[in-house]
Structures are given as structure tokens and as C-alpha cells.
Specification:
about 325 residues, alpha/beta, Inosine-uridine Nucleoside N-ribohydrolase, Chain A, eight-stranded mixed beta sheet, two-stranded antiparallel sheet, binds alpha-D-ribofuranose, binds calcium ion
Length: about 325
């Protein structure tokens, strides 16, 4: 079967790192490039961390492109309290050997989508949507050339994780999110409503740590750090594993369930800034523009994750 061409835009970040490893371990996916954005930690660190992960995965040929170092309009926010100062709290990786590509991430996204056959490239968005919004504003025609955008972001019934009603990725750059959701591209959302069901319990972390390879050991250390901060435990004792849900959806869409609905992004109110206003009950009359996932087979997700991580060095 022909591998599915993807670009992964991310802000590593421990869950981004796990998502990258899952993608790089999966032959069903052809990662054309990894683009980085400021988010969990500043751009220099998200770019360094992405390079470290491709090296850890033994996939140094996958290029890493740095993109936006700040949101379109809003002041930058970050999440060192969740991911550690380096963005890879819990592990200490050497300076990565793979060099950063010289091309800007936004130019790479536009160029790739124009060069590859229309409808053949999927963009996986794991952080703030600044790079994708800039690409869509510079080259609106790429919206129709994208196979789909599969993104981790937003929330509905789950509430927010950075304000009472906003999820970090959309809150960090709500204007970029609004550009993306109004672009006309096909969008699949993996919101907190799904990722809060995917919890890295001690048993699950232990099973990953027992895979016996460096990738498993590193992921176990990252997830143990996340669990130790307790910041994201939301009343339980296990942190959600957000970004790998995007890659798992590409590999096993049957693990997820949702609805095609209208989603708008709040950019006016200080109180609800960055909120994804998801019309789950279709009461607004606004046209559907995204598939909002709300259910997931969490045991099936972790079985997939473990099986793929075991394939890495
Ligand atoms: O809200 C969770 C999202 O914000 C994840 O992508 C995490 O990595 C952070 O970027
Ligand atoms: Ca992320």
C-alpha cells in the first residue's frame, strides 16, 4: 500500500515527541517534513527537540523546518510548567546531529503542497496553528490541495486547559486558528474531549518502559515527568496524552468517533479568547466545517502505541 504523505507541524513538548515517534515508526506514513512553531516552549527549543526526536527514531533524513516564533497577534504564551524548561522534561538528550533545514517552515508547507499532487498531503497540526495560518494567508489555494488537516486542539464538553473554556493550542494563537477553520480545508479535530480519555497511567507507562529499547525508555521518562508534575492530572493520577491521538487517527481511524459540525474560534472576548465554539447539537445553522472527535478506544490506542514504539531503536 502506498504510504500516506504527511507534514507534522508541532511544538515539542513531550506529547508532540511521542506523536513524532509514533509517526516515524509507522510505515503507513511518509513524513515529508516536520515543521516547528513556538508553543509549549520557544521556537529554538521546539526545533531542537524535533531534531532530537528524528535522531532518536533513527530517521535523520526527515527534515525539520523552523517556522513562526510568535503568534499572529496575541502575546506569546508557553507551557514550561507542563513540559519542563527544555520542553522535554524528564530526559536529557545530547545536541542533535541533524541540522535544521534552511528553508522556513511556512515556505516548505506551501512549496510541498504545490509540488505534490492535489489531495495527496495531510497536515498534522500538534501545536498552535500559526505556521499553517501563515501558509494559508500567503497561498489560499493550498486549502483545496490539502487532503485534510488533522489537528489536536479545542474542546467542547471537556472545558479548557489554559482558561476555563480554551485549550492551549487554540488559545496560544486564536487568530491563526480562525484562519484555519475558515479556510475551507477538510478538518478533523482531536480535542480535549478525546485526549482526556487517553490517560498515561502508571501501568501504561511501565509497559512502555519495558519495551526494552531506547525509544520506549525515553517515552516512559517523558510520561513519568508529565505524571510527576500533576499539572494535567485533572483529578485523576494520570496525564492525558494529547498529540499522539492525531497520528493514531491516521493509522486507526476506527479507534475514534465524532461528528461533522460547525466550529468557530473566539477572537474577540478576553473572557473566552481561543474557545472552540463547537456546535455539537447543530443549533446554530452555521455550515459544518470540521469533524469533531468525542470518543476513543483508549486501550486500543495504547496497544497501537506500544506496538509501534517497539519497532524503533
Ligand atoms: O492542549 C494540549 C496541547 O497543547 C498539546 O498539543 C500540547 O503539546 C500543547 O501543545
Ligand atoms: Ca503540542
Amino acid at each position: 500500500m502506498t504510504p500516506r504523505s504527511i507534514i507534522i507541524d508541532c511544538d515539542p513538548g513531550h506529547d508532540d515527541a511521542v506523536a513524532l515517534l509514533l509517526a516515524l515508526a509507522s510505515p503507513e506514513l511518509d513524513t515529508l517534513g516536520i515543521t516547528t512553531v513556538a508553543g509549549n516552549v520557544p521556537l529554538a527549543l521546539t526545533s531542537r527537540n524535533a531534531r532530537s526526536i528524528v535522531e532518536l527514531a533513527g530517521r535523520c533524513a526527515v527534515p525539520v523546518f523552523a517556522g513562526a516564533d510568535k503568534p499572529l497577534l496575541r502575546p506569546p504564551v508557553s507551557a514550561e510548567h507542563v513540559h519542563g524548561q527544555s520542553g522535554m522534561g524528564g530526559v536529557s538528550l545530547p545536541e542533535p546531529k541533524p541540522a535544521l533545514a534552511t528553508e522556513n517552515a511556512v515556505d516548505f508547507i506551501i512549496r510541498t503542497l504545490c509540488e505534490k499532487p492535489a489531495g495527496s498531503v495531510t497536515l498534522c497540526a500538534l501545536g498552535p496553528l500559526t505556521n499553517l495560518a501563515l501558509a494559508l494567508m500567503q497561498a489560499p489555494e493550498i486549502a483545496a490541495r490539502l487532503r485534510e488537516i488533522v489537528l489536536m486542539g479545542g474542546a467542547c464538553f471537556a472545558g479548557g486547559n489554559v482558561t476555563p473554556c480554551a485549550e492551549f493550542n487554540l488559545y496560544a494563537d486564536p487568530h491563526a486558528a480562525q484562519v484555519v477553520f475558515r479556510s475551507g480545508a477538510t478538518i478533523v479535530m482531536l480535542p480535549l474531549d478525546v485526549t482526556h480519555q487517553v490517560l498515561s497511567t502508571r501501568a501504561r507507562i511501565a509497559a512502555i518502559g519495558e519495551l526494552g529499547n531506547r525509544a520506549g525508555q525515553t517515552v516512559a521518562q517523558l510520561l513519568s515527568f508529565a505524571a510527576s508534575t500533576g499539572v494535567e492530572n485533572y483529578g485523576g493520577d494520570a496525564p492525558p496524552l494529547h498529540d499522539p491521538c492525531v497520528v493514531a487517527y491516521l493509522l486507526r481511524p476506527d479507534l475514534f468517533g465524532g461528528r461533522h459540525i460547525n466550529v468557530e474560534i473566539e477572537t474577540g472576548s478576553a473572557l473566552t479568547m481561543g474557545m472552540s465554539v463547537a456546535d455539537w447539537w447543530s443549533v446554530s445553522g452555521r455550515p459544518a466545517n470540521a469533524t469533531f472527535m468525542r470518543s476513543v478506544d483508549a486501550p486500543g490506542f495504547y496497544a497501537l502505541l506500544g506496538e509501534r514504539l517497539a519497532r524503533l531503536p
